[in-house]
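Q: Okay, next protein. This is Bifunctional ligase/repressor BirA from Catenisphaera adipataccumulans. I've checked the sequence twice, so it should be correct. Can you predict the 3D structure?
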Amino acid sequence: MKYEILRILNERKGEYVSGQAIADELGISRVSVSKQVKRLKEDGFEILSQTRRGYQLTMNNDVLNAAIIEDGLDPFYHVQVVNSVDSTNNELKRNANDLPDGFVLAANEQTAGRGRNGHDFHSPSQNGIYFSMFLKPDLPINQALKVTACSSMAVVDAIEKNYGIKPRVKWVNDVLIGQKKVCGILCEGSVEMNLAKLEYIIVGIGINVHSYSMPEEIRSIAGCIEDFSDRRVDRNLFLRDVLNAFLKYYRTIDKNTFLPRYKEYSCLLGKEINVIEPHCTYAAKAVDINDRANLVIETSDGTRKVLSSGEIHIREKAQ
């Protein structure tokens, strides 16, 4: 019941809603409303109470909450929110045998967030959106990158919708604004070897939303969306937009509906790059992204290669 009250207050955030109006809508007593509001305050929500005016969910409330996220969310998803976890990907892997398709775990903070290639992903409380999706796609192993691409475009769409900013995608798993990384994606999965197809895939997404003072070691390469905008967007609504946008691409993944926009928003295509692999680094040019979301490159001798992994850096032009 408290989440139904939260939904009502959130729909009129910044305005007072009378206790009687809430009670009438939900068919409960005003005393029950008061008790549930008290519980919401204990959960961390800032709610003002004023005699003869009622209750107001203040504009600076930004606590992740499953009920708010699921209000208007496609029913494919099942959302759970926790205050803190080591890593949302780790938590889903620990429980993979019991999870339904479309399960989403979001956390207000991660104490051991992870990125690709063993890198840490800084995930402080209340500043970003850190979540993982548990999916059971009907895809062969060699098309798994398409899920990462769909995830990237979902974040791009949500940023454009909420902030009016055009981000860029850096193959394979980063979303940038300007030169700063504002989102990283880590996909991990289990494979049915005899069928050469995915048993499940866990899509971990970390998005830096609200501005804060980043650690010095990542300050030059990472940023927050709101470093580039005066708007402040509720993280619950932003996450809902990401999830709904992802599903739009995911449900048509066999038709590659993500691909034209993925190419359009790429910051690599046509650029001179360095390809960093475990045992070597070499120069190339990014020339295409194929229908499996692989990066197609051309080396200095004109040879074309198709990459399914690897770290890519754009080469700076000589001054």
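A: Here is a summary of the prediction. Residues 66-264 form a domain with the BirA Bifunctional Protein; domain 2 fold (CATH 3.30.930.10). The chain has eight helices and 14 strands.
Q: Noted. On to the next one.
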